[in-house]
Amino acid sequence: MSQPRPDEFKPPPECPVFEPSWEEFRDPYAFINKIRPIAEKTGICKVRPPPGWQPPFACDVDKLHFVPRIQRLNELEAQTRVKLNFLDQIAKFWDLQGCALKIPHVERKILDLYKLNKLVADEGGFDIVCRDRRWTKIALQMGFAPGKAVGSHLRGHYEKILYPYNLFQSGANLLVTECYTVSLCYFTIPVLKLHLSVVMALNSLQTAPCVPQVDLVVCLVCGSGGEEDRLLLCDGCDDSYHTFCLIPPLHDVPKGDWRCPKCLAQECNKPHEAFGFEQAYRDYSLRAFGQMADAFKSDYFNMPVHMVPTELVEKEFWRLVGAIEEDVTVEYGADIASKEFGSGFPIPNGKFKVSPADEKYLKCGWNLNNLAMMNPSVLTHVTADICGMTLPWLYVGMCFSSFCWHIEDHWSYSINYLHWGEPKTWYGAPGFAAEQLEEVMRKLAPELFESQPDLLHQLVTIMNPNTLMAHGVPIYRTNQCAGEFVITFPRAYHSGFNQGFNFAEAVNFCTVDWMPLGRQCIDHYRMLHRYNVFSHDEMVCNMASKADTLDVVLASAVHKDMVTMIREEQKLRDKVKKMGVFHCKEAKYDHLQDDERQCAKCRTTCYLSAVTCSCNSGALVCLYHINDLCSCSVTNYTLNYRYTLDDLYPMMSAVKQRAELYDDWASLVTETLEAKLEKKKGLPVFRSLLAESESRRFPDNDLLRRLRLVTQDAEKCASVAQQLLNGKRQTRYRCGNGKSCSQLTVEELSSFVRQLYNLSCSLPQAPMLKELLNRIEDFQQHSEKVLADEVPSVAEIQSLLDVSFDFDVELPELPRLRVRLEQARWLEGVQQASTQPASLTLETMRRLIDQGVGLAPHPSVEKAMARLQELLTVSEHWEDKASSLLKARPPHSIETLSAAAEKASGIPAYLPSCLLLKDTIRKAREWLQEAEELQASDGEPMMDSLSDMVLRGQAIQVHLEPLDRLESLMVEVQEWKESAATTFLQKDSTLTLLEVLCPRCEVGNVGSPKRKPKKGKESPKNNKKKTPRLNTLSDVEKALSETKDSTSAMATLEELRVREMEAFSNLRAANESKLLPTADCMDLRVCVCQKAPMGAMLQCELCRDAFHSVCVRDPSDSCETQLWLCPQCQRSEKPPLNKVLSLLASLRHIGVRLPEGDALHYLVERTVNWQNRAQQISQSCNLPELEERPGTPPTLTSWTVFYTEQRCIPLQGLSRDLEELMVEGLLLQVSLPEVQSLFHILLDRASSQHTNRCMSPTQDESTDCDQHMQFNSQGNNLETMTGSEKKSKRHLEREGSDAERRVKDKKHSHKRQKMNKKNLQRRPTSTSTSSSPRSDFSQSDDSDEEMAVCPAERCQLPEGDEVDWVQCDGSCNQWFHQVCVGVTAEMAEKEDYICVSCTLNDGHMRK
């Protein structure tokens, strides 16, 4: 939408529009009196008749002829007319000097000479403006853009056009004198020749020297008659002037008429003619005028007349009115007498034939022919027909035709009805603003009022409503459409224009309330010297003469007016009498025409009295202007009177008597209605006054209607108040929400209480309701105070809500209190959450914020929300930051995390990630402390603790500098283990490196006899310190990991070695006894396949068990005499000692303890010890030097029942030390040449001795090594060694396992019970008859103990709550520890066990 221009017209607000019902419309005066309090505030109002009220148009369109007025739009507006008058004066000034005025253009706009002249004058005049250089300021004030040097142009135009005129108007002396020289010092442009001869001529008359009368034509300035060709002759007075004597001098003689300065002054000083509208030269019929009007509007707007918007016409009208350069002329058929041409309304006996359906309009009160002369109208008492007031006037308008600002004659009402046509736009100002409007127009156009003081009564001047509104005058507007009335109220200025061709009719009327204003208007007219349309005093006297028939209300008004009139008349007559006027006579002024009895001075129509003089019988003056009659002596004056004062008093008394009853009643009613406080009467008094008005038939006027209305209101209020107090109000039931369906609001109750106290009558219920209202107001004040609190108490709000239940009133505070209660509860929850940061989680904050969003806005809530939102934002930020810091890859340093944690620690909220960050930092510091302690410790760290530290360090999301070093250390350890595994472990081996390096904790093979498990018994020595059980590899690994140093680890491994040796001793004995010749060798179960011996067999040198060659022999192996170990005994590749030492050195270089390292350390020590023992035993036994020897072909051993492919060392005759040495050498997981040499030596000795046994030495030499030797492994990098391939094939092992399962399926199901040592009272002391030295040793061991002991040769004395035993199924029936004889729990459950002694004895017996 385009923005309006700054000077574009802005429509004023609309006036009231009333739409009466048929009942209200029936009496026009009653309706007008009803709407008067509202409508008189705007001055004008519009009335739309009820639908269906459409009177017929009674004028003959073709016979109605009129001569319209000519209206030039830019001459209508006051300020525009002032400008035009000024331009006329300037043009006349220059025209009389023979120059035509041409208005210049500046910046493509016509220069406003009037505004330029006024601005220069306001600044102090031309000289001051030039001196102070204010031309730029004047240019800005005229609306020109700055910076374009417009000021210099304005100065030039002023000097050329306006300055001479202003000098002429001021009468300044402009002759060639010192003064003139000074005045011309500002003229800087020599081209400008100012025609300043006007005042110069006047000065010449005063200063020119007197010359003798001659017949020659001489110059009146210089007195010379020379240079006649340069003498100018005035066309007005024939005076002569030289062209060069004029100021400024003229170079040429003017071509047109030229006036001398004296004639110029005479012409310009002539008074202006009063402005008025000219009459058109053409007589129009209504039809012809309409055709002309429609054609004008259609051509002007270039569109059909009915399509032009009213807003566009309105804006264009006011633009044209203010435009000097656009001269638009329209015609207006105004003030056409209906008496001559006929009214638009039907009248009785008129020329227009009224249909029966329209006869109702003949007597209708809204018919303007009837309205002015109806009984309620005061104008009915005016005897003469006043055209335009009592008789309607007709108005035929066209587009832009207007009616200027005016008020109705005698400040009366007016009513205008638009019969048909396009709308009429009205503007109005209320009556109280009349003087303000007049003052504004005088201020803005003083020149017009100087020549025409009663300008506003001429209906020829208009002013833009926006201008008036800008000066504080209230203006209202309306568009009157066809069929609508517009009513103007007393002294209400109004104006307007027509939107197009239309026909309207108007008339004046006066009601009783107008009477005081009518008299005030007469005084105003007297001051303005304006004639009266009728005599107000005559009208009043006419009404007083009919006092008996007057309406009592009118009689009362007439009486009041007569009191004022008689008092003033008496004062004036006394004044005249004092002045010396003694001649008096009666004059029938009511028989004279109004123009024959007008005051010669003020033009007031005289009626009660006038003064005349005998010198001029036709002249008279009112008593106010007796001094303006003539120059004769006052004694010659005559006082002419219509009534004597004695005549007037009876007339006033008659009116008073008529109105007295009503006045007394009205006075009492007025006193009753206007009583205040305790003087108020009760409701019964009002009822009695109403009853009196009905009995005396007083008129239904404003006072009676007010009394009736007040009484009705009082009765209603009394009824409602009583119901409120009694609690019997019909609407006093509650809805589902606990609120009365029609509860009174506090404002309504307060208004009702005020209404009770504002009533003119006193009601007893008012104080009681006031007390209830006070309680409610106290509640409201308390509520407002609570609501104003920043953080109100929940309990306080709840108490207020509880109190509110006592008031059955709609309290606006209740919803706010409920809302505030929710806010308070929420704030309380926020406060509680804030005081407990440990429980203030992000979810809690989000929940509180979500709850707060649903609350009504409040500063405290918004602050809390802001704080909570800020806390949530900060918390989320630090939570996310903490999470990102913890998830960062690579991890951040502990310093970075500590700084972040320090910042986050001040946040009063529960932040899991921040807490996790703090915990991570704590763990990191603890880990670093532990790492520092580990680094500071002297000993080597254990692999498990190191691995645990690395795992824990990796789990800590912090960059830990020692962790990289530990991880690299772990990598080195892992590489060392891989290298060691490569060196020791066989291909596809199921054994672990630790299992290979450690002494065996479980000894046995799949071919061993089945053993029955027996319950263990308590240790016979209760005071013996318990040692950890080393029954499984995991126990060994755990024990090694728990050792604090290598010495403890060596002790543990030494213990394990002893058990290994014992176990293998028993295993070897058992297997040897099993392989002794028996009655039926087919019952034997040997090899991995657990079948009977057959074919070529192999016997393990270590476990002494037999194996089928096809099951375990590798075809690639040679059949040379090499010691052969079964797959179960050949546990590793047995690398050379140098490789093992290299591995140990590399481990020492790493500097970490691990079970495998301790085991390797012990293996090396065990190997070295074995070598030393082997050397010692070889020397003690006179063995040859241990060296490798060639093998011999396989032979059948003398003590087996099957054939073996290789030779084994026979055990018969072999000393125990040699056997243990050989067994331990075979158990070593290191390849030693001494083992092979010892094997060949023993084998060769066995071959040479055949059946002779090698007896063991009589004294056992101590070959035990120091079990507590410390060995610090500070090795270097690991050297990976490649293990040898295994000798046995995996498919043979699988075949052996299948054979074993088949044997197990055929075995008997008989099971031996296990026996718990705790349940045995004492084992039988009978011993086996076997003379085996091992049996003897076992029997002799602990023979004096209360409980029996294991008879095994090397009992390990197992400890614990339960110890498993196994009973021999041979002839001795002795009980053995399962661990001492190498029997597992599964073997003891499923197989028979025969001890070594029984096996040997049974073998000898079979022999």
Automatic annotation (TrEMBL):
Residues 216-266, 1084-1132, 1347-1401 form the PHD-type domain. Residues 1322-1338 have a biased composition (Low complexity). It is an enzyme of class 1 (oxidoreductase). It comes from the Eukaryota. Its EC number is 1.14.11.67. GO terms for cellular component: chromatin; nucleoplasm. Keywords: Chromatin regulator, Dioxygenase, Iron, Metal-binding, Nucleus, Oxidoreductase, Repeat, Transcription, Transcription regulation, Zinc, Zinc-finger. Residues 80-170 form the ARID domain. Gene3D superfamilies: ARID DNA-binding domain (1.10.150.60), Cupin (2.60.120.650), Zinc/RING finger domain, C3HC4 (zinc finger) (3.30.40.10). PANTHER family: LYSINE-SPECIFIC DEMETHYLASE, LYSINE-SPECIFIC DEMETHYLASE 5B. This is [histone H3]-trimethyl-L-lysine(4) demethylase. It comes from Dicentrarchus labrax (European seabass). The gene is kdm5bb.
